[in-house]
Amino acid sequence: MQEPPALTLPTEPPARPRLPSWIRAKFPGGPSYLRLQGLLRSAELHTVCEEARCPNMGECWEWGTATFLILGDTCTRTCGYCAIKSGLPQGLDLAEPDRVARTVERLGLRHAVVTSVNRDELPDGGARVFAATIRRIRARAPGCTVEVLIPDFKGSEEALATVMATRPDILNHNTETVPRLYRRVRPGGRYARALELLCKAKEMAPQGVTKSGVMVGLGESWEELLEVMDDLRAVRCDVLTIGQYLRPSKDHLPVERFYPPEEFLRLKEEGLARGFGHVESGPLVRSSYHAHEQAPPKEH
Question: pTM score > 0.85 for this model?
Answer without folding.
Answer: no
